[in-house]
Model the fold of this input.
Amino acid sequence: MSTSRTTGSHVAHRALDRARRSLPAIAVAVLVGAAAPAHADPTQPGELTHPLVTAATCQNCHSFGNIAPHEADPLYAPFFGWQGTMMANAARDPVFWAGVAIASQDLPGATSECIRCHSPRAFLEGRGDATAIEDLLPEDIAGGVECELCHRTTEDLATPPGNAQYQVDDVAIDGAVPRHGPWTYEGNVGNPPHEWVQDPYTGSARLCGTCHDVTTPRQRVDDAGVGMGVDFNEQRTYSEWLGSAFSQPGDDFRSCQDCHMPAVDEMPGCFDNANAGLTHATGGRRHDLVGANRFMIELLRGIYGDSGSGEVSDFFYDNAIDMLDAFIASAATLDATGPRSVDLGTGLAGLEITVTNETGHKLPSGYSEGRVMWLEVIARYGEQVVWSSGTWTQGTGMETDAQLRTYRAIAEDFDDGATFHLLRNNHWVEDTRIPPRGLMPSIETDPVGDRYTLQGDGTWPNFDVVDYAFDGRDDIVDATPEVTDDDVLQVDVRLLYLINTPEYVQFLDDENSTNAAGANVRSLIEDAGGAVPLQLATAQLSIPITGFGDGGGSSSGGSTSAADTSGGGSSAGSGASATTEASASASASAGTGTGADSSSGAGAGEGGGGEGCSCDLGATPTGALPWLAAIVVLRRRRRA
Done:
């Protein structure tokens, strides 16, 4: 294997360090010169002399319990964080395979980059033509986006991030390829039993951009069908971050890792260090690697967990769900303002909801097919719904009304208007997802439509302001007519996110003429009672009401026929948090868990609250992790 596949000084670090201790200065200088950075193309199938070491091997050293005084903190062993995530399960995801089957029908032979991202091992070993999970080997499926993919990927500035164009280090030192990471072990205890390279690229946002920008092969066209001179920008999560305030040096800087891999001050490097109570001086990061796909993790737990094939303990999936629930609490905030009082006969006007994106990318970001975020607004008098918009009812779906406010990106094949066909897409119909703070204008990341207006500083707003107005009601009867000042309208607002809409699930089944992957997905989701939306944030207002009727009028609780705000409308407001004008308090908080049936209340879901070792030990030895069984027993649970 050519040494051009090195990262220059990073890969040579260990060899140079040895040279400094054993060779004359002039010889070291020669080595340094030979290690100058070189460009190499992304790694192709069959090129690796040294295959990726399996995650199961890494597990043996990189699974350990938290040491004192961190026993009560979230688990920070890398394998524990990773195993239950969508990263580890990227090759198991049934929705992925249903989509690949249709993409292969649309453009035969063009799905190898899908495999390159979701199962790097399969791609690198020559199975990139897979169009069904049955085409992979068990180790391809078990690995997903596995340890060595990230810890052997090297930086190549000549290759733009995106489409999984990773360059894998294949230069061995003492018979093994070094693991890349942020640590150096000189002067520290617990040197690993494998070669290592201190490489800042491993902890960079650009590494995440390797897979989290995706371009598909058709030229993008504008609203008139005229080519725009660029290929279709299917996903731009990394570019959204790169163009935002979060990528700029200073106090506001936040990398992908800062949010998705929280820092830990005291981190053992391995099982032996944890047992000895030894930690690395510069700390480390949890490998939480979670996003917002809670529902799929629950489905995967049923398929591969303790009640399924048993390949992955429920412990890992439950841990990922716990981390996800805590993580999504930081995604968005809601502010609500309303009138000081409401006359039911006149109606409700002046209800203003502000949604603020707190992430470093669009909200929501990433793959857009069949995904939608929206506002659910329900105004109740006691248990009676007076007005509503966007109500979610599990098993029925989302209420569509004139005031429904959605956040989504819809792509199509401009020639015939077909949607959901990933590799045929060449035109954005709309992109109303909320930009991140400080996002600069760019053809690659701009919203599509007229909802957002550039602010005075030339950036897109990271918030959306929505005004609601509802017609009067004459059929609401005062429950306590003998008391004149006790009647309150409670307005509950939820920001909900559904990753697999019923329409998309139906599409995956109907359009698949290749295999049963779409029917399998539909069956899995239907058996689970339908996909469940994630609650990202909530707000509540309590407003005094008057003007009760005699019960003889209309019983409709719907909204007025205001302009459809699902795609248009302006939201370039001041951006300040709204202050309620209601006589009672208004509250806003991050949401948690899953969406509940809104017909019975505004509460939702459960729980709190937008990425190695070469020891060939095979399976985990009996007794190697004596405390793991106890954790599995104590933490394992089924979620209703």
Remarks:
- The chain has 18 helices and 23 strands.
- Residues 347 and 591 are 28 Å apart (CA to CA).
- The radius of gyration is 27 Å.
- The mean pLDDT is 84.
